[in-house]
Design goal:
EC number: 2.7.9.1
Domain Pyruvate phosphate dikinase AMP/ATP-binding: 24-301, 319-371
CATH architecture of the largest domain: 2-Layer Sandwich
Distance between the termini: 34 Å
Domain PEP-utilising enzyme mobile: 436-517
CATH superfamily of the largest domain: ATP-grasp fold, A domain
Shape: elongated
Bound molecules: adenosine-5'-diphosphate, magnesium ion
Structural class: alpha/beta
Number of domains: 5
CATH topology of the largest domain: Dna Ligase, domain 1
Family: Belongs to the PEP-utilizing enzyme family.
Strand content: 15-25%
Cofactor: Mg(2+)
């Protein structure tokens, strides 16, 4: 198997491994692809991801084969370019670029202009006729190489550059002249020698291998690890290394560099979108050193900017770029995010990939591209990440609300967020762990800030464009972001900031509108999102393609309405205990629990009956015509017990029973492990009067609502925590008996079902027997995960993160179903249940019912429906369609 693949020049692309991202990484595969369709790509080669992993496992050593293959590939590049690496007269320079399977923005390191030393820099200057350019390139190289490979403090170099500019009275890098750069190179070399105890490496081959090693090793850097964990990227993927001939955007006024999207990544509109800089190298655009210019005339005019657009300043190169955009979209059939450089008027392509986009843009592009005939409906459905819909389903700022606008930045990532100002990532994490909403405010963000950006509700930066680190990462995370807000100035030592002419302290509340770039004082009210348009179209397509039903987990009429609005086809889980916590009812519930005998309990339950009936009636009215699964009381009673003295006193007064007596009762009822204690159907077995009351409330409410006319609901009465057939048999008989009584009293009968949750391993194993008593199973995967893994969800916090970090759990098993283990129980129970009761209805109501990967599994084992919390219903609809395709 090849360790290195060539691209550009006369490279041969016949080995399919070269276009496989798992082998050559995203960047390498796409460079080969672009070169293969005849686009202008500087020649180079890609070292496989496999090599990076074997380098790491070999204890950071290169294999002999790799050394030989790289030497051969370097010769390929030299031939293609017509220059030799290390040639003192006319040197070949290369970039060394990392490229994992998926893009990890800013996570891995790149070295540009490699191959320069004290001798070749003179050759480059003489040969190009641009000595400023040669010395600028050399100082960039020393700076990057020292940072990435030698791991010296980059602040030292930046400081030296600042001082050099100050000494000469310059404001920007552009003013630096050839001999200014040359002097700075001397200073840089001194810094290296002082810090390292050795001079800057002059041997170009040593430079090359040093850079390759650094890219390999960056896979195990802390920031790469954090990024991997946040994005569920396995450590076993590794990164490829791309070595590529340099092209120069810093060769004067006819040279430039830029980044662009073939459509607007923020709105999805079909307009070219991007930023560029004249006389600059790649990193300058994203680093925010200079303010980038607009790509198109229309955008520049709309923004009222002075600096010319590329369309105006370099019409020929721009025309060529536009042609490439169209070619790339037709080839990849998706929006592309590209990097380009213009060297003395000639366009070169340095990267392309499917562009990250906001949820809104993803939807619009999917629907538009299907309409344009670029993709089919199925592909459109698959294009949108269901989880990304979350961004669209949440509220935006109320356009009619008053806004105390402080200033404006770039609308870098849409959505609205309010929260307390925090000035660094650690504080953001700390405060958010205390359940506070925070807005992270930074001059600009860097990969070290990722954890803080994740913890924040929104991100505000003083510097950086639409493609800055903050903007790209925020869009990926779905966090609203306003970038490049020059009105913001931060005083970190005082923990204060100014926005425009107003002072703020860390902890003051501000609001961001990522769609307009506005920054506002205080909290601005929000409104519900609009669900028509592209969203509605895609959801219709999804509904046509999905097999499973989608229900919701809801227990309040409000939640039911929201869920119905989002397309829920019934209730999959109505947790009745939530109704017990209501302020007006908790005392009756406590009286019931602490009663000494059945008659005491019945008296208390009698007070609860009308309340509970009212709850159900309202839910049934909201859900007319749809099935509603109602779970009878489930939690351990200790959750309702009074704990504070005032609570005991209150209760003692209302029951006319002594406080001491109540406390003694409470002590008697204490459980050591309530989650595995007296709960679920065990309550129904020992205190049948509780379930009788609930069943009565359900059937009376159903009769009441049916009597009002309209489509009747179908109550599905669900018995929790069943482990044996006999439990379900006893309780099913109880429910049937109550139904019979109510129907006789009311003079009507209604359809209803009795079924059970499958949430204990024994129930899953005995599903064949249990199904004889059940008309439906609903997989309670939260408890099933707890009981199968022997992990208490409430106590797992202490070890869950390290378990995920170490790869012991692939993901948090309470978020994404443990398909390998718990999944077997689900699959087996589904099979055994169907074997005895072929028409048994199967659904899932755990948290996993709203998780796309778990939904895909439900499709695979043939469940009839999934049930998700109201805001997850559209996510589940789309995920169910994707699973069915
Ligand atoms: P990242 O993944 O962080 O974008 P890249 O490897 O793509 O890192 O490179 C960083 C910057 O350097 C980009 O702007 C890229 O276009 C530029 N660059 C990389 N290789 C070359 C090259 N051979 N010639 C000119 N510019 C390059
Ligand atoms: Mg790049
Ligand atoms: Mg449960």
């Amino acid at each position: 198997m090849k360790t290195v693949y060539n691209f550009g020049g006369d490279a041969d692309y016949s080995d399919p491994r070269q276009k496989d991202k798992t082998v050559t990484g995203g960047k390498g595969a796409n460079l080969a692809e672009m070169a293969g369709i005849g686009l202008p790509v500087p020649p180079g080669f890609t070292i496989t991801t496999e090599e990076s992993l074997s380098y790491l496992t070999r204890g950071e050593a290169f294999s002999d084969k790799l050394r030989a293959d790289v030497a051969a590939s370097l010769a390929h590049v030299e031939r293609a370019v017509g220059k030799r690496f290390g040639d003192p007269e006319d040197p070949l320079l290369v970039s060394v670029r990392s490229g994992a399977r998926v893009s990890m923005p800013g996570m891995m390191d790149t070295v540009l202009n490699l191959g320069l030393n004290d001798v070749t820099v003179e050759g480059l200057a003489a040969n190009s006729g641009h000595s400023r350019f040669a010395w600028d390139s050399y100082r960039r190289f020393i700076q990057m190489y020292s940072d990435v490979v030698l791991e010296l403090d980059h602040g030292l170099f930046e400081e030296a550059l600042e001082i050099a500019k100050e000494d000469r009275g310059y404001f920007t890098d552009v003013e630096m002249e050839a001999d200014d750069w040359q002097k700075l190179v001397g200073q840089f070399k001194t810094i290296v020698e002082q810090e390292r105890g050795e001079p800057f490496p002059q041997d170009v081959h040593e430079q090359l291998w040093g850079a390759i090693a650094a890219v390999f090793e960056s896979w195990e850097s802390d920031r790469a690890k954090v990024y991997r964990r946040l994005n569920s990227i396995p450590a076993g993927w590794g990164t490829a290394v791309n070595v590529q001939a340099m092209v120069f955007g810093n060769m004067g006024e006819t040279s430039a560099t830029g980044v662009a999207f073939t459509r607007d990544p923020s709105t999805g509109e079909r307009t070219y979108y991007g930023e560029w800089l004249v006389n600059a190298q790649g990193e300058d655009v994203v680093a925010g050193i200079r303010t980038p210019q607009y790509l198109t005339k229309a955008r520049r005019e709309a923004a009222g900017a002075d600096l010319p657009s590329m369309e105006e300043a370099m019409p020929e190169a721009y025309g060529e770029l536009a042609r490439v955009f169209d070619l790339l979209e037709t080839h990849y059939r998706d929006m592309q995010d590209i990097e380009f450089t213009v060297q003395q008027g000639k366009l070169w392509m340095l990267q392309t990939r499917s562009g990250k986009r906001t949820a809104k843009a993803a939807l619009k592009m999917a629907v538009d591209m299907a309409d344009e005939g670029l993709i089919d409906q199925e592909t459109a459905i698959l294009r949108v990440d269901p989880m990304a819909l979350d961004q669209l389903l949440h509220p935006t700022l109320d356009p009619d609300a008053e806004r105390d606008v402080l200033g404006k930045g770039l609308p870098a990532s849409p959505g609205a967020a309010s929260g307390k100002i925090v000035l660094d990532a650690d504080t953001a994490e700390l405060w958010s762990n205390r359940d506070e909403s925070v807005i992270l405010v930074r001059v600009e963000t860097s990969p070290e800030d990722i954890h803080g950006m994740h913890a924040a509700k929104g991100i505000l930066t003083a510097r950086g464009g639409m493609t800055s680190h903050a903007a790209v990462v925020a869009r990926g995370m779905g966090r609203p972001c306003v970038s490049g807000a020059s009105a913001v100035s931060i005083k970190l030592d005082e923990r204060t900031l100014r926005i425009g002419d107003r002072e703020f302290k860390e902890g003051d509340i501000i609001t961001l509108d990522g769609a307009t770039g506005e920054i506002m004082a205080g909290q601005v009210p929000t409104i519900e999102p609009e669900l028509a348009g592209d969203f509605g179209v895609l959801m219709d397509w999804a509904d046509k393609h999905r097999r499973m039903g989608v229900r919701t987990n809801a227990e309040t009429p409000d939640d039911c309405r929201t869920a119905r609005g989002f397309g829920a086809e019934g209730i999959g889980l109505c947790r009745t205990e939530h109704m017990f916590f209501d302020a007006g009812r908790i005392s009756a519930v406590r009286a019931m629990i602490l009663a000494d005998d059945e008659s005491g309990r019945r008296a208390a339950l009698h007070r609860l009956l009308p309340e509970q009936r009212g709850d159900f009636a309202e839910i049934f009215r909201t859900m007319t015509g749809l099935p509603c699964t109602i779970r009878l009381l489930d939690p351990p009673l200790h959750e309702f017990m009074p704990t504070r003295d005032e609570e005991f006193e209150e209760l003692s007064e209302s029951l006319s029973v002594g406080v001491d007596h109540l406390k003694r009762r409470a002590a008697e009822l204490h459980e050591f492990n309530p989650m595995l204690g007296h709960r679920g159907c065990r309550l129904g077995i020992t205190f049948p009067e509780i379930y009788e009351m609930q069943a009565r409330a359900i059937f009376e409410a159903a009769c009441e609502v049916t009597a009002e006319g309209g489509d009747p609901v179908v109550p599905e009465v669900m018995i929790p925590l069943v482990a044996t057939r006999r439990e379900l048999e006893i309780l099913r008989e109880l429910v049937d008996r109550v139904a019979e009584e109510v129907f006789t009293e009311q003079g009507r009968t209604l359809d209803y079902l009795v079924g059970t949750m499958i949430e204990l391993p024994r129930a899953a194993l005995m599903a064949g027997e249990i199904a004889q008593e059940a008309r439906f199973f609903s997989f309670g995967t939260n408890d099933l995960t707890q009981t199968a893994l022997g992990v208490s969800r409430d106590d797992a916090g202490r070890f869950l993160a390290p378990y995920v970090d170490k790869g012991i759990y692939a993901k948090d098993p309470f978020v994404s179903l443990d398909i390998d283990g718990v999944g077997q129980l689900v699959e087996l129970a589904a099979e055994r249940g169907r074997a005895t009761t072929p028409d048994i209805k199967l659904g899932i109501c755990g948290e996993h019912g709203g998780d796309p990967e778990s939904i895909a599994f439900c499709e695979k084992v043939g469940l009839d429906y999934v049930s998700a919390s109201p805001y997850r219903v559209p996510i589940a609809r789309l995920a169910a369609a994707q699973a069915a395709l």
